[in-house]
Amino acid sequence: MRELTVPRVPLLAGPTPLMRLERFSRAIAPNGPTIWMKRDDLTPLAMGGNKLRKLEYLLGEALEQGADTVITLGAVQSNHACQTAAAARRYGLKAVLLLRGPRAVPSTGNLLLDHLFGAHILLDPHPPSDWGTRVAEELRQQGRRPYLIPYGGSNATGALGYVAAGIELACQLEEMALSLDEIVVTSSSGGTQAGLVVAHAAGHLRPPILGISVDPPASELTETVYRLATETARRIDMPSPARHHVRVTDAYVGPGYAQMNEATREAILLIARTEGIITDPVYTGKALSGLVDFGAPWPLGGRPPRALLAHRRPARPLRLSTPVTAPVSRNGSRRHTCGGASHETNLRARAGGDRRGSGRRPQPCPAAGPRVDLCSPHSGRGAG
Question: Residues with catalytic annotation?
């Protein structure tokens, strides 16, 4: 497999695990697809998450340019901003975080970690579109050498992290003699999906990539990913992807960015109660609700497909509220009945679908126990 010969600093401890979700797969469809998960939430800095892959190349470029300060932008609870602050400290750089949110906000969650890492934090509920470039110029006038990282680290440099991730995944699949039919990843600012698309178009990663939008309309996100993938491929002299390589669905956005519907809640609870894995409602949770559709009873015959989900970020703290019940079988035991969607409404049928939801949903969510409130007042935007 090809190695990328561009500036990079090591932030990862090695390849992230590839896990088979046997019980989750059987819960959504006993005879349906087998779901695997790439655990990019298990990275070593801050609370983990996929942004370290991009930051390996972004900080590598920053140091090559002689920067002493990195600037980035995000929401007040941005996981990207938090990991940027942690990674900057690892390499002796100052971090300036430009966060969209109220100026008076409690220091909790990632914002608390930002302070712990000694980041200089600016808050603005309505920031200007050129906020980053303004602050960078102010720092230059003070004699500093800033390096500006865009939202989510999503540019041609940051996307290199997921070209490398695609090559890493291809090596893992080869070692395991495992073939996949689909790779599913949540997509917002587009960098993660763009990098994987480049690895796929260059022949390193065979399965096609499907991006599940967590906010932008499919048409808009498709253009963003295609542009980023083209720029990234040119940067490292790889074949440029064709437009058909970029596949996006916005069918699982739900009410909007960082707003969770019942389908996402059910999917998060299901994977927690079948695999012991905690996922977040802003990104991975929405992809999981899509995989529940993908796992609908498979009508095509032959071997059911194998899909892989990239789990990109750790979950935020949960709050318990009212109970959730599960249906009771005839013998009195609890049972889970997810998986009622037809093939016409499953994930493949929605690659390019609408934003209304996910068709017929599994009914209802599994297992008795407390209801979990997974929403947070300031979810961390800035992913890709």
Answer: 78
